[in-house]
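Consider the tokenized backbone below.
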């Protein structure tokens, strides 16, 4: 095989499989899928894709529930040299109209219940429609079962696209991040090493697979290591704790850890077979980190990544896993912090824009050359949009998205700094600090809290406790207590929703 053929992620994942009988995926209802099965099923599915007219470089847009068949579709698309384009299962037809119009796929795969509604949308770009249900049944698998499993993996160069993932786009249009075979392969291989994955590992996989975390980090890392994963449709704390008796790794968003902590069955004993708990996609509260260590004896390993960059940093496997920090740049990844205005690199401990460079970083935004250009520095660093710092020991800390920065009376207020103060108060579970329009200050610092049931937390009490601990310009002008913070499916607090809810509170009467 020549060099080009080797760069196809599918070849890199599977060419060296020496034991096809080795278990790759086990489902919650007991189905066992070996590496050999995966390869054969990906061959059948790739033949169907080609028969439906999918050519190398074509996009295959997929909005289906998590299932083994969906993973097979991902692998088959890559194997056929096409571009896998997963879409959040929550998207409505109206939203799909934008994504399909923008990506112009040659094939759209959807849940059988959505096929009728999607047909006219797909027709606008001449895309065919096939179905795939959560049970793995549909027109696509029906055809695949009859197809040959022999398929010659389409040669791809490392710079060819393997996937496009649309960013969640809480402000402005959602952008398609173009990810190459090398972006995905190099990052997963680096994580296998950094997190010490081996063929003995059993991963509990309860994440969605339309997002980089569940699709690339969890799935590719497991498959590269020849490990296996237990596929769960969603977070089910009772079942996860039961599975820990024979699993070794859990990858989750912070909500997984807070929900598991609420379960009385979580203990040192029930987690003793596990070797690693990984968290990412949203900030893990330092308190959750400490509580987890106290309850289980395991320090959660927090890492930082994004759709556009795959994984950038990780707390160490052996060294100290610092609560509230996202660790060190992964091997091959350069991270720097710069002045957001001038782009000049800042010294350690100073807060600025996090920029990254490495083979993990995407190729650009789909059909948005100007946007792509404006997000990269001339020396190739990608401007992440995250504000943070690198501390004296080299650990990276994230202080929030740049767009969440509050500017009050001309001063920069970093929400995380205030949230950390508030989160440490008795009775407070978590908080979100936002800026909302204020007639005198431009933006008024506003805190929204979630507290323990029955806790005596009041606005006056919080303000009194903060007085003297924070500079006056950082002090919240109002404090609200709510039952829960709005979150998206990856556990990220949706500050845009909060800003909207409280947008009129400082309006002049
Ligand atoms: P996404 O593209 O949906 O994966 O979102 C990426 C964004 O999630 C990053 O730019 C960060 O703002 C945030 N993020 C990811 N991991 C972490 C983490 N460990 N701590 C804080 N924020 C994180």
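A designed sequence for it:
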């Amino acid at each position: 095989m020549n060099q080009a053929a080797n760069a196809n992620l599918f070849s890199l994942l599977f060419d060296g499989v020496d034991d096809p009988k080795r278990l790759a995926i086990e489902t919650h209802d007991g189905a066992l899928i070996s590496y050999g099965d995966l390869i054969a099923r990906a061959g059948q599915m790739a033949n169907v894709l080609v028969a439906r007219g999918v050519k190398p470089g074509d996009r295959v847009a997929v909005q289906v529930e998590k299932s083994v068949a969906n993973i097979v579709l991902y692998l088959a698309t890559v194997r056929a040299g096409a571009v896998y384009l997963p879409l959040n299962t929550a998207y409505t037809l109206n939203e799909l109209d934008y994504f399909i119009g923008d990506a112009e796929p040659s094939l759209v795969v959807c849940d059988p219940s959505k096929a009728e509604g999607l047909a006219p949308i797909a027709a606008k770009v001449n895309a065919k429609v096939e179905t795939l249900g959560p049970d793995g049944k549909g027109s696509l698998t029906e055809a695949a079962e009859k197809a040959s499993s022999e398929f010659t993996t389409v040669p791809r160069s490392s710079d060819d696209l393997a996937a496009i993932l649309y960013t969640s786009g809480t402000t402005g249009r959602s952008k398609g991040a173009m990810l190459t075979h090398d972006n995905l392969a190099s990052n997963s291989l680096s994580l296998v090493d950094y997190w010490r994955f081996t063929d003995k590992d059993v991963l509990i996989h309860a994440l969605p697979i339309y997002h980089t975390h569940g699709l690339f980090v969890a799935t590719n890392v497991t498959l590269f290591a020849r490990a296996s994963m237990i596929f769960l449709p969603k977070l089910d704390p009772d079942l996860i704790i039961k599975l820990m008796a024979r699993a070794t790794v859990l990858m989750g968003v912070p909500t997984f850890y807070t929900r598991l902590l609420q379960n009385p069955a979580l203990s040192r004993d029930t987690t003793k077979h596990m070797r690693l708990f990984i968290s990412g996609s949203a900030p893990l509260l330092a308190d959750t980190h400490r509580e987890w260590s106290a309850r289980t004896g395991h320090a959660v390993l927090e890492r930082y990544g994004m759709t556009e960059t795959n994984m950038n940093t990780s707390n160490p496997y052996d060294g100290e896993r610092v609560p509230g920090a996202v660790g060190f740049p992964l091997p091959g990844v350069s991270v720097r912090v710069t002045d957001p205005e001038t782009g000049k690199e800042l010294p350690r401990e100073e807060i600025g824009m996090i920029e990254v460079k490495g083979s993990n970083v995407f190729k650009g935004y789909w059909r948005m050359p100007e946007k792509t250009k404006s997000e990269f520095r001339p020396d190739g660093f990608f401007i992440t949009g995250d504000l943070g710092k690198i501390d004296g020991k080299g650990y990276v800390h994230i202080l929030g998205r740049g767009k969440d920065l509050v500017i009050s009376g001309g001063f920069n207020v970093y929400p995380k700094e205030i949230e950390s103060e508030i989160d440490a108060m008795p009775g407070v579970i978590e908080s979100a600090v936002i800026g909302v329009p204020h007639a005198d200050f431009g933006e008024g610092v506003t805190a929204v809290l979630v507290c323990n049931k029955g806790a005596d937390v009041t606005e006056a009490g919080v303000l009194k406790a903060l007085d003297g601990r924070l500079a006056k310009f950082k002090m919240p002008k109002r404090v609200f207590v709510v039952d829960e913070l709005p979150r998206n499916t990856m556990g990220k607090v949706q500050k845009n929703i909060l800003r909207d809810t409280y947008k009129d509170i400082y309006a002049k009467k």
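Residues 252 and 298 are 14 Å apart (CA to CA).
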